[in-house]
Specification:
With 62 residues, the protein is mostly helical. The chain has two helices and no strands.
Length: 62
């Protein structure tokens, strides 16, 4: 199984000022979609977890 780097060594408390503009755009778009969905926090958190899991599996299998 291929290993991928999950962190760039940054602290677990990442601030908005410490990330790239593309990362900020992704974060803002994700937040907008979550709010627009009308789902509860628990449902949003589950969806984010599953999306992250799928992205991870795609990376390690490529």
């Amino acid at each position: 199984m291929k290993k991928i780097q999950l962190s760039d060594g940054a602290p677990s408390d990442i601030r908005r000022t410490e990330v790239s503009q593309k990362t900020k755009e992704l974060m803002d778009n994700t937040k907008k979609l979550c709010k627009k969905s009308g789902l509860s926090y628990v449902e949003i958190n589950k969806a984010l977890y599953l999306a992250d899991k799928e992205l991870y599996m795609e990376k390690i299998s490529s």
